[in-house]
Amino acid sequence: MNLEVADLRLSFGGLLAIDGLSFGVGENEIVSVIGPNGAGKTSAFNCVTGFYRPTAGRILLDGQDVSGRRPEQIAAMGVARTFQNLRLFGELSVLDNVRAGTHLWSRQRAIDALLHTPRFRRTENEVTDEAHRWLDFVGLRGDRAGPARALPYGEQRRVEIARALARRPSLLLLDEPAAGLNHSEKAEMTDLIRRIRELGISIALIEHDMGLVMEVSERVVVLNFGREIADGPPEQVRRDPQVIEAYLGRDAEDSEIAEIIGDGHG
Ligand SMILES: Nc1ncnc2c1ncn2[C@@H]1O[C@H](COP(=O)(O)OP(=O)(O)OP(=O)(O)O)[C@@H](O)[C@H]1O
C-alpha cells in the first residue's frame, strides 16, 4: 500500500504539534520518521490511523483521501499499528491476543457462534492456526497459552507485532519497536522488520535506535518541533547539517545522538 502525507498540520489548542509534514511510503518500502522527543512523530502516526483529526493537510492511502476518517475505517483499509507503550491484553493468553487481531477478516456470524455450528468451529480453527503461524513468524519463544503479561518485555513486543500482522495489513506503522530491547533482540527486530517487508507490506517506522533506522530504511524523514527538516536516503540524512544540529541542540549525552553525529562525521 502507498501512503502519502501532504502538508499535515495538527494543533492542540495553541500548541502546533505538527507544522507541515509531507512524506510518502511507497509500495513495499520502509520509511522511518525520526526526531527528538516531542517532535510530533507519534502524533503523525495518530493522524494516519485516524486517532487524531488533522488540523490541515491530507493523508492518502493508495491515492484515496482518508483524512478525517475514523480509526476503524482506516484499519479496514489495511492499516495496522503497534504502540510505543505496549497495548496487549495482559490477562488474555498470548495466543488469544493474536487471535484478537484476526477479527477484521474472520468476523463470525452470531448465530453460528451461539449454536457452535461446524462453520463456526472451522473458522475458529483457521483463526487459531493463523495466530500460531504469526507467532512462529515473529519468532516467539515463550509460552503461548499463558497470559501475555507473563512474557518478558522483548517477547511481548513480538506478540504485539504478531497481532498487528494477524490483521493482514498492507501498511504497518511501528512505533519504537526496538525500545527496551537488548542488543541481540534489536538485531532480531531488524531482521523481523525486513521479513515483514518481504511479505509485501509497506512499513512506516518511528525509532530512536539509529543503527536500526540506518540499516532498514529506504528513506528517513526528520522532524524537529513539529517541522520537517530533512527527508532522504539514510546516508544523506545522517550527514545533513540541520539534522546534526537538531540533535546536538538537545542533549548531546544521548547515545542515539552520539551515534548519529559519530556516523555523520565518520
Ligand atoms: N493529546 C494531546 N494533547 C495535547 N498535546 C499533545 C497530545 N499529544 C501530543 N501532544 C504534544 O504534541 C507534541 C508532539 O508529541 P508526540 O508524542 O507526537 O511527539 P513524539 O515525536 O512522538 O515524541 P516521543 O519520541 O517522545 O514519543 C508534544 O509537545 C506533545 O506534548
UniProtKB/TrEMBL annotation:
<dbReference type="InterPro" id="IPR003593">
    <property type="entry name" value="AAA+_ATPase"/>
</dbReference>
<dbReference type="GO" id="GO:1903805">
    <property type="term" value="P:L-valine import across plasma membrane"/>
</dbReference>
<dbReference type="GO" id="GO:0015188">
    <property type="term" value="F:L-isoleucine transmembrane transporter activity"/>
</dbReference>
<keyword id="KW-0067">ATP-binding</keyword>
<dbReference type="InterPro" id="IPR003439">
    <property type="entry name" value="ABC_transporter-like_ATP-bd"/>
</dbReference>
<keyword id="KW-0813">Transport</keyword>
<dbReference type="InterPro" id="IPR032823">
    <property type="entry name" value="BCA_ABC_TP_C"/>
</dbReference>
<dbReference type="GO" id="GO:1903806">
    <property type="term" value="P:L-isoleucine import across plasma membrane"/>
</dbReference>
<dbReference type="GO" id="GO:0015192">
    <property type="term" value="F:L-phenylalanine transmembrane transporter activity"/>
</dbReference>
<feature type="domain" description="ABC transporter">
    <location>
        <begin position="3"/>
        <end position="250"/>
    </location>
</feature>
<keyword id="KW-0547">Nucleotide-binding</keyword>
<dbReference type="GO" id="GO:0005886">
    <property type="term" value="C:plasma membrane"/>
</dbReference>
<dbReference type="InterPro" id="IPR027417">
    <property type="entry name" value="P-loop_NTPase"/>
</dbReference>
<dbReference type="GO" id="GO:0015808">
    <property type="term" value="P:L-alanine transport"/>
</dbReference>
<dbReference type="GO" id="GO:0005304">
    <property type="term" value="F:L-valine transmembrane transporter activity"/>
</dbReference>
<protein>
    <submittedName>
        <fullName>ABC transporter ATP-binding protein</fullName>
    </submittedName>
</protein>
<dbReference type="GO" id="GO:0016887">
    <property type="term" value="F:ATP hydrolysis activity"/>
</dbReference>
<dbReference type="Pfam" id="PF00005">
    <property type="entry name" value="ABC_tran"/>
</dbReference>
<dbReference type="InterPro" id="IPR051120">
    <property type="entry name" value="ABC_AA/LPS_Transport"/>
</dbReference>
<dbReference type="GO" id="GO:0042941">
    <property type="term" value="P:D-alanine transmembrane transport"/>
</dbReference>
<dbReference type="GO" id="GO:0005524">
    <property type="term" value="F:ATP binding"/>
</dbReference>
<dbReference type="Pfam" id="PF12399">
    <property type="entry name" value="BCA_ABC_TP_C"/>
</dbReference>
